[in-house]
Write a structure and sequence with these properties.
This protein has 237 residues and is an all-alpha fold. The chain contains 12 helices and 2 strands; from the N terminus they run ββαααααααααααα. Strands 1-2 form a two-stranded antiparallel sheet.
Length: 237
């Protein structure tokens, strides 16, 4: 583990990240058996992390400080081997584009987007989801990462709303371009009422970068859009 001089936070290299979490890419595998094996590995990792945390908490009932520090180290190491624990805390001040944990953060978000029920059952952390989305909302990603984020935005606007999905507007603004707008335009013309509304709203905000993404703005836009789509015809009664 390397130490970052300014922050004092440990920064692990790509090889160590792969050793700890390389198996997690199986959560997105097309082979059901590979996905099932990854879920078993994830459940074991989460159980180990929780057990280490419980042991650390028990040390606070004692006054033996060396044992407490060892228990804390054991918990920290176990948490890094669980997917949510591994991506939870990015070193302060580090550029997300050069962070070795970036592929695993994208994996965490893509897994939540594509398999929300599994994510909820095995690794639900709304705060981690929100902080990672915000971390991704920068404009200097390489093309591979940018494409992945465009795909994530497209996936999210086409599904029923989940907690913290609103933060994806930040990502949409950061990776705005013809490819993203083309996907959003297509979603806004789909047969799914939610996809139409959500994609239309994101497009509305992309055209108005000064507009905040608040509940008030959402409700105002939704009321206006609903009024425009309301059927017209001769009054009855």
């Amino acid at each position: 583990m390397k130490r970052e001089a300014e922050t004092g936070v440990g920064v692990d290299g790509a090889e160590l990240w792969h050793e700890r979490l390389g198996w997690a890419f199986g959560l997105l595998a097309s082979d059901p058996a590979e996905r099932a094996a990854a879920l078993v590995r994830l459940a074991d990792a989460e159980r180990n992390a929780q057990g280490a945390l419980d042991r650390y908490h028990r040390t606070w009932r004692r006054r033996f400080w060396p044992g407490r520090r060892a228990a804390l180290r054991n918990y920290q190491e176990a948490a890094l081997r669980s997917l949510s624990g591994g991506v939870r805390d990015r070193p302060a001040g580090a550029d997300v584009g050069t962070w070795p944990g970036l592929p695993y953060a994208l994996l965490y978000l893509e897994w939540e987007a594509r398999y929300p029920q599994e994510w909820t059952r095995h690794a639900k952390e709304w705060g981690t989801k929100e902080s990672l989305i915000r971390d991704m909302a920068v404009a200097h990603h390489d093309e591979t990462v940018r494409t992945k984020l465009v795909e994530l935005v497209e996936t999210v606007v086409q599904r029923p709303y989940r907690c913290k999905d609103r933060a994806y507007v930040r990502v949409a603004r950061a990776v705005d371009g013809d490819d993203l707008r083309g996907r959003l335009e297509a979603a806004s013309r789909s047969d799914d009422p939610w996809a139409c509304r959500h994609a239309g709203y994101v497009l509305h905000l992309l055209d108005r970068p000064e507009l905040p993404n608040t509940r008030h703005v959402w409700r105002s836009w939704l009321a206006a859009a609903s009024s425009e789509r309301a059927p017209t015809g001769p009054a009855r009664g």
